[in-house]
């Protein structure tokens, strides 16, 4: 397989860079071969990929070290490793989450008449992975795949609130909390206090902390183990999401999040 890659400035990458890309492509080809068979020998893999045995062996040893490939101690045959299962499982879980969430999100949007978002955490950011637009002429819109800070958004605070204080401190250790608006919480202690309130009431509120003119109410989505794996939110202008309306909208958002959680296998402990 020939590889023709250019850098952003139009120059060809170094020989080492091309070799790295070639090794990556070959490593992925090994995984694809093993995905279609229960087990294969070194000779079989080298033959299918049309690679020297020594090259195939080096690639297999690298994949073994990372857990993507396993080797039978009895037969010496190779198969997919647990890490490949974990990565595939993470994709399936994310895809299943979106599929399961859509009916509840549509029902919630129709119920409250506003846009509903679905987000997951990635480091110190929330990533929007789903959205149902509201029927209003003026409605909130977030690009799927867009990222936003955890500390100043409804979905972000819902994703953070059920983590331990130590984990939150470690996550934001040495990080300046940027003041996006006059309402943004810019100290870690203020954020921790806010997260305690979120846990107590079961939902998070973004009162124009990330963007002026946008309010959000969010609630956590849990998986079978009870871990918070996502959050859904209702977004609207302050005129349509007033302080007086927030409790009622929050009740409906929590109900929607609960419905999605049940679909993921979560069962709340009896009172």
Question: CA-to-CA gap between the ends?
Answer: 61 Å
Structural category:
alpha+beta
The Cα radius of gyration reads 24 Å
Total of helices: 8
**Widest sheet, order of strands:** 5-4-3-8-7-6
Q: What's the overall geometry? A: elongated
How much helix is in the residues?
40-55%
Instruction: Summarize model confidence as the mean pLDDT.
Output: 86
Low-confidence stretches: 1-10
Range of strand content? 15-25%
How would a textbook summarize the main sheet? 6 strands, antiparallel
Count of individual beta strands: 8
Order of helices and strands: HHHEEHEEEHHHEEEH
Description:
This protein has helices spanning 15-35, 42-49, 53-65, 82-112, 154-160, 165-171, 188-201, 246-263, and strands spanning 69-71, 78-80, 115-122, 125-132, 147-149, 204-207, 215-222, 228-236. It has 271 residues and is α+β, with helices and mostly antiparallel strands. The model is unreliable at 1-10 (pLDDT under 50). The chain is built from 8 helices and 8 strands, in the order αααββαβββαααβββα. The protein has a 6-stranded antiparallel β-sheet with strand order 5-4-3-8-7-6, with helices on both faces. A two-stranded antiparallel ribbon has the order 1-2.
């Amino acid at each position: 397989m020939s590889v023709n890659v250019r850098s952003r400035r139009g120059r060809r990458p170094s020989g080492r860079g091309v070799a790295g890309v070639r090794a990556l492509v070959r490593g992925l080809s090994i995984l694809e071969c093993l995905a279609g068979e229960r087990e294969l020998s070194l000779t079989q893999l080298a033959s299918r990929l049309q690679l020297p045995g020594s090259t195939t062996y080096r690639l297999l040893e690298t994949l073994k070290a990372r857990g993507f490939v396993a080797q039978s101690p009895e037969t010496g045959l190779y198969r997919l490793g647990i890490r490949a299962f974990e990565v595939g499982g993470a994709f399936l879980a994310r895809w299943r989450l979106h599929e399961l969430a859509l009916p509840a999100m549509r029902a919630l949007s129709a119920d409250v008449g506003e846009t509903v978002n679905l987000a997951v955490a990635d480091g110190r950011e929330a990533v929007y992975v789903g959205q149902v637009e509201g029927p209003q002429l003026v409605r909130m819109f977030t690009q799927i795949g867009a990222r936003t800070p955890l500390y100043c958004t409804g979905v972000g605070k819902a994703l953070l609130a059920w983590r331990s204080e130590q984990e939150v401190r470690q996550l934001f250790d040495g990080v300046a909390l940027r003041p996006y608006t006059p309402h943004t919480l810019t100290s870690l202690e203020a954020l921790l206090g806010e997260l305690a309130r979120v846990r107590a009431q079961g939902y998070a509120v973004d009162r124009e902390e990330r963007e002026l003119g946008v309010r959000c109410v969010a609630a956590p989505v849990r998986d079978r183990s009870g871990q918070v794996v996502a959050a859904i939110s209702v977004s609207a202008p302050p005129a349509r999401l007033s302080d007086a309306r927030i409790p009622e909208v929050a009740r409906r958002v929590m109900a929607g999040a609960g419905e999605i959680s049940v679909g993921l296998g979560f069962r709340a402990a009896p009172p």
